[in-house]
Structure formats: C-alpha cells, structure tokens
Write a structure and sequence with these properties.
4 copies of one chain form a homotetramer. Chain A is an alpha/beta fold and 171 residues long. Chain A has a single domain, classed as Rossmann fold (3-Layer(aba) Sandwich), CATH 3.40.50.450. The two termini of chain A are 19 Å apart. The first copy, chain A, is globular. Chain A is built from 5 helices and 7 strands, in the order βαβαββαβαββα. Chain A has a 7-stranded parallel β-sheet with strand order 4-3-2-1-5-6-7, with helices on both faces. In chain A, α1 packs parallel to α2. The first copy, chain A, is 37% helix and 15% strand. Chains in contact: A-B, A-C, A-D, B-C, B-D, C-D.
Chain lengths: 171, 171, 171, 171
C-alpha cells in the first residue's frame, strides 16, 4: 500500500513590509485552520505573513515547514518546525509554490505575485483571499487576477484549498 | 578603463498560446527598435512573443540571446543568435528577468507575470505596454499593476526602457 | 530566547544504480544512528541510499525530510515523513547539500559528487565514509578527495558529523 | 531548413585562488583554440581560468559568453562579449555545464568538480586536461575521475571536445 501523504498547503503573502494588519490576522486564522484540518503548512519561513501563519498553525498543534531565502537556519521565525535553508534567495519562491497541493494567497505584493504565478504555471490550485492584491491596486481600488478563485474569508479559503487539493490528487 | 557593456533589454510576453495578434506585432516592432538603438535583446528564446521580438531585432541587424526552458538548443527559434539551453524548465524565467538592464512586458499571462514579478523584486526597471495583461483582465476589461510604468506604444516603451536602464547604471 | 533547532544531517549516496550492497547497509545504519542522536535526516527522498537511510532513521523513531527531483510527491520512498517536491530535477542537489548542518557521503557517483561539491563550496562540513567513491576509482582502486574527512564506519561518521555541525554552529 | 548552431564549449577551472600557473596558461591556449575552431566559448565569466580562457578566445577573434554568479554585469572579466548576470550565486554552475555541447575541465577544485559532475549527470561530454584535479590530489599526487576522458594538452582537449560534441549532435 503506498504511503498516504497528508495534504500540504502553502500560504503566501507579504513579509512585514508588504502586508496589512488585516492580512496578518487572516494569516494567523488561515494557519490555524490548516492545522485543524490536519494539513501541513508550508511557507517561506520568515516574517510577516509567514510568521503569523506559522503561529496560527502551531496554536492548533499543526506542523510547519519553512523554505528559507537564506542559508541561515536561525533566520526562520520561531513557529517553524522544519526550517530548510537554501542559497537561492528569492528564487526559493518556486519551491514554496511547488511544495504543496494547494496555495492560499494573502495580501502581498511582488513576491506574492511571483509565488502565485509559479503555482498557476505549475497547475497547482490557488485560492486568493479577497484583497490579497491590496498592495497592487489602482487608485480606485480595483483588483484583478480574475482567473484565480477567490474566497471571502479564511474559513472558506482553507475549505476551498483542501477541496481543490483533493480533486487534483484524485485527478 | 572598464569594459563598456551595451544595454541589454529583455522582452517578455506570452508564447503562441498566451499572446494576441496585436501582441505579436508589438513584439516585432519592439525587437526592431531595440536593435536600432544598438541594445541587445534577451528573451526566453522560444515561440510567440519570443520569436517575433527576435525576428524584429534581426531585421535591424541586432543581436539576440535566448535563455531556454529546455536542454535542447534546437528548440530555440531561428532568430536567436545565442541560445542558452538550461535544465530549469520555467524556473529559467528568473534568468530572463535578471539578465537585462530593463524589461519590456508585452501581452502575456502567468509566465509573463512571473518574469515581471522577478524583475520588480530585483529592482530591474520594467515598462509594460498598455494591455500587456490583456489575458489577465476581468470581464470589464480592467487592468492593474499600476506600479509598473506603462507605455502606449513600442517606440515609447523602448525609449522608456533605455532611459530607465541608463539611470540605473548611473545610479 | 531563540528557537533551538535540532541538528540536520544530509546523507548523500547513489540511487539504486549507483551504490553498492555495502553502501546500502551503511546507509541504513547511518540513518538509524542519526535518529538515535535525535538529529533530523535530510536526503533526496528517492531510492537506493536515500531509501535505506530513511528506513534506518524510521526504525529508530527519527524524522526524515526528502527533497525530491520531481513535482510528484508520491515519488518519495515510504520512509520519508516530509516530502518536498520540486521542479528542479537534479538541480535539487544543491538543496540537499545546503539544508543540513553536516553531510555524510556514502558510496555514489556523479550525483553524490555533485552534492558533496556543493557542500564543500558552501562550507558545510562533510564526512565521507571510506569507499564512498568506490564508483569513481581507477583500476588500482585508488581514491581521492583527501580534503574531505573520512570515517571508517557508520558510527564514526555520525559522531564526526555531529561534532562538526556543533562546532560550526558555535563558530 | 533549421538553423545550424555553432558548437558551444564550456571551459571550467578554478578562479584565481583555485588554479595553478600552468592551469592559466592552458586556459588561454584552450580558449584560443576554441575560437580558431569557430566554436563559442562559455564559462562563468569571472577571474582566473575564466578570464584567461576568454582572453585566449578573443585573441583569435572568437565569441565569449559568461554566465555570472552575481547580478552585477560589470563583474565580468573584460574578455567576455556577452555577460549574463544571475541571482543564483554558485548555483549558476549548472548553467555553465548545461549551456554547451562539450565541457573542458582545467585545474580547479570544488567549483570545477561541481560543474564537471553536473555535465556528467546531464550526459554532456567532458574532456579533462591531465592534472585538472591537481588541487584535489593526495600527498602522493594521485588523481582520479577515471571515467572522464583525459587529454594530454590543450590541442588534444579541444579536438576531443569538438569530436564528442559532433557525435552527440548526430547521436
């Protein structure tokens, strides 16, 4: 019988300088719900969205993996169980996008757009929280990326991501 | 006296399946104008935007470099002077973005978004042609990425790109 | 107080076609001893040395991380706890080398040489088991890589690797 | 009729700190002979072996491409015609190995071993000059890597590399 892997979900979003207070709250709730669903959280392991999502996951007893943009393991935030240092700098984004069965996009900017586009290219399901691209909007607050499924809150995002991941596995 | 490098400009945009007829025409004109300005054209070396931009550059006697997503050099389009095969698949996008002094974005989709976001992360100047994100618009035709400077036509895009590249070098 | 990370040790060596029966036995013992020392085992997650090292680690209740050369998580061997699929092919070797605090080299060939050289470049301590380069010897059975510390058996290799990892952390 | 690409040959070997005076002389002669044979020289674009090989190629009117380990194009040595900056650090080694139809290994150390092993993994023909691994020998001066074809001088190395490249293309 082949090993049954748990579902891995990557949470992407801005670091401290590229997110919003609401984005950080969403990150923590998304992380917590991922853990409650017994999925594994993957992210870039550093600050901002990455730290709050991992904090949420640990608050519910989950497991967290951080794929770092540096060779220094101690750069991981304290909520990362398994920190994977890399010498790739921001090119590690491709690893965050490809490590998981589904990706949830929270407020962020170019790094988040980079990870989201890597997931879309690879055919990995992405769920964006409404407003994930707050940092990319025009002066009338309009948003785009209409091809990406959007969820209205953390609970819906995690439920959608798990469903899409399951469909893809069975695919 | 240090070697004086020419200006390198990367042209990004969809392959045959992710561009538009207008995008292909723009690609050829942008490529031609890059060569006329004695800049070197860099792109992903394959079809669609990549082929037409290289064709335009060669029509004006320019030099073209293609960084391929495959290890097979013969996958390069016939207008590429120097084809660099890689084993990185679409991760070679980061090389296309980082090889140049400025990036011009033509109509495309996720691969183009991926390259554009890599350039923005790296601080490499990007000029997008109005409508580059035609494939990413919503049902009301609205566009975003307002932080990226937009040009209204090929001539303006190449002029802006060269100016931004020069400013960055002197910076 | 900063998070205290456990010691990560990467075990490198040939897949099924590039190892030896003795190499596979060593892999299992090395994996077991890594787990007994409460270190985390990292490797490429696939077959041969990678599978037997992970099997050994799991026999002692350890934790195993596999960084795969494919985007298919189910390609991981059944002893991998956390499988990280990547789109990098053999370029993932650099991740295996850089993820750990020390590297143990078991019998292998060019892939193993590649990972070993990445570790040496990065300044990550490497311990080679005598004969790790059996597949690379000349007709008189002579070995090289004299700059790499060699251990005579699995127990010595793991002890040396842990000591070198600790020295590097304190360094 | 498909485009007929010239033969690309990568020359690998130590930077200033990881080569020998003889290695530098060999580099210059190898570069010159590559250009005389109307092949394109590819290397890492920086100092030591890379600079001398490019100097040799330019002395015979050849074309040189350097794939840099840095995002700063001006880090290229002055004999590089086309400098490709990358954000990959030493991971760009894989690009040097895979860009060419054959690889010639000159005296070097871990970086050279890394590039050589990438070429061997990818099935790209490698020719090593006797003594390429001088920096890796034991105290009795013994060498290894017997699976790699060795040439006794620069002329033989370039002739062998071109033959192997042609065979592979026809293969």
């Amino acid at each position: 019988m082949p090993k049954q892997h748990p579902i891995y979900i990557s949470v992407i979003g801005g670091d401290r300088d590229h997110t919003t207070p609401q984005g950080l709250e969403l990150a923590e709730e998304v992380g917590r719900r991922i853990a409650e669903a017994e999925c594994i959280l993957v992210n870039g392991g550093m600050g901002g969205t990455m730290e709050r999502a991992a904090k949420g996951a640990k608050s519910a007893g989950g497991t967290t993996i951080g794929i770092l943009s540096t060779t220094d393991r101690t750069a991981a935030n304290p909520y990362i169980d398994f920190a994977i240092p890399t010498p790739l700098g921001f090119v590690r984004n491709v690893l965050v996008a490809n490590a998981s069965d589904a990706v949830i996009a929270l407020p962020g900017k170019w790094g988040t757009t980079n990870e989201l586009s890597f997931a879309m290219i690879a055919g990995i399901p992405v769920v964006a929280i409404e407003g994930w691209d707050a940092k990319l909007r025009d002066d009338q607050g309009r948003s785009r990326f209409t091809e990406v499924p959007h969820a209205s809150d953390a609970a819906e995002a995690v439920a959608m991501a798990i469903n899409l991941a399951k469909q893809r596995r069975e695919g």
